[in-house]
């Protein structure tokens, strides 16, 4: 049954990347029902994460918050500390979009600190995005632009893209910065950040 749950979760991830969020949600629910039927709580980890992401993309903030909190608790139970950081990062966006800026800042800061302290290098692009988003929210558009440039450069160098829900935040941030600074000023500041490594850009 564990293999079946994981296979369905993989199909759900493919559906999300293809932009078919309703299908991903349907598959996530099937996977979670199967997992719960086994009585093995560990099998609920992936389905819960997937369903939370679907709720976030769909704008169902209350449901996403509940699911991310559940996911954090589950991952803490099983000592999956990297995934705890991932879900703290995800939950922060729910709080930010709900207008709870201070709570979002607290969660983003915790995710950044744990990423650095635990050497979770694959989370550096995500916490760089988080820091850029908060910098823009605080009105520091120059820092936000430099961080975005460092993030873009790191992703291109690694041949990677952000997860779909975070890619939406990345696009929204970019569009907001271009609108605020103007295209020419944005590109000028962006150029100064493109050569920075993520740790340098984050100053960690």
UniProtKB/TrEMBL annotation:
Official protein name in the record: Tetratricopeptide repeat protein
InterPro entries: TPR-like_helical_dom_sf (IPR011990)
Organism of provenance: Pseudonocardia yunnanensis
Superkingdom classification of source: Bacteria
């Amino acid at each position: 049954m564990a293999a079946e749950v994981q296979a369905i979760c993989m199909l759900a991830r493919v559906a999300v990347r293809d932009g078919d969020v309703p299908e991903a949600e349907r598959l996530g629910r099937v996977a979670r029902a199967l997992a719960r039927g086994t009585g093995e709580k560990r099998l609920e980890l992936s389905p819960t994460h997937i369903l939370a992401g679907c709720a976030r993309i769909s704008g169902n903030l209350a449901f996403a918050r509940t699911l991310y909190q559940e996911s954090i608790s589950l991952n803490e139970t099983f000592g999956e500390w990297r995934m705890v950081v991932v879900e703290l990062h995800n939950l922060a966006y729910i709080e930010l979009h709900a207008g709870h800026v201070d709570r979002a800042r607290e969660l983003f800061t915790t995710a950044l600190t744990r990423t650095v302290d635990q050497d979770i290098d694959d989370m550096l692009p995500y916490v760089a995005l988080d820091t850029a988003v908060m910098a823009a929210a605080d009105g520091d558009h120059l820092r936000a632009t430099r961080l975005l440039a460092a993030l873009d450069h790191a992703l291109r160098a690694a041949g990677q893209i952000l997860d779909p829900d975070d890619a939406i935040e990345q696009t929204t941030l970019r569009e907001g910065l271009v609108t605020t600074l103007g295209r020419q000023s944005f590109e000028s500041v962006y150029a100064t950040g493109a050569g920075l490594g993520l740790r340098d850009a984050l100053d960690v």
